[in-house]
Hints:
Elements: H1 3-31, H2 51-68, E1 104-110, E2 116-121, E3 124-128, E4 133-134, E5 138-143, E6 147-152, E7 155-160, E8 162-163, E9 176-177, E10 184-186
Antiparallel strand pairs: 1-2, 2-3, 4-5, 5-6, 6-7, 7-10, 8-9
Amino acid sequence: MNQESIFKGLAAIAVTALVVLIGYSLFRVFYGAxxxxxxxxxxxxxxxxxxxxxxTIDTLEAMWNDRQNYVFNVAQDPLHxxxxxxxxxxxxxxxxxxxxxxxxxxxxxxxDDNPKxxxxxxxxxxxxxxxxxxxxxFKVLKIEKMQVILDNRGKRMALxxxxxxxxxxxxxxxxxxxxxxxxxxxx
Length: 187
């Protein structure tokens, strides 16, 4: 035997011993550690077995309870506009709401694969599609870009949004009007 083959044999024995030692160490870590009951991969661990997990959950629950029980008081409502805007008052009804209870008007139309319209009637806004009814009298027959055709007990009527001339001076900044005086056409 020569010296080279002895070194190769010793190297092979050393590598084999190292692999066995690493394997045994891993086995001890995963299956043989004292105080650990391990029934295999994917086994559930209870809070009694994992003290660090239990402490983390207890801390999170305590923080959550503190946040839920937090109460604060303010002397005044910070969003009340009466202290910021002179002579400000809250109004129960919106602008012109009480005056328009018997009037029907077109607020907006949305034209896509399924056209919809917003129509104001009886102090309420209705989002309607073709075939829907508004109140007891009006049935939606057709929705177009700037108008809606309704059936009013056998009579057809059109609600129209008309362009405003000189709309840049309009207080609302809109290019279209839905004034109740000039937007209903019966035919």
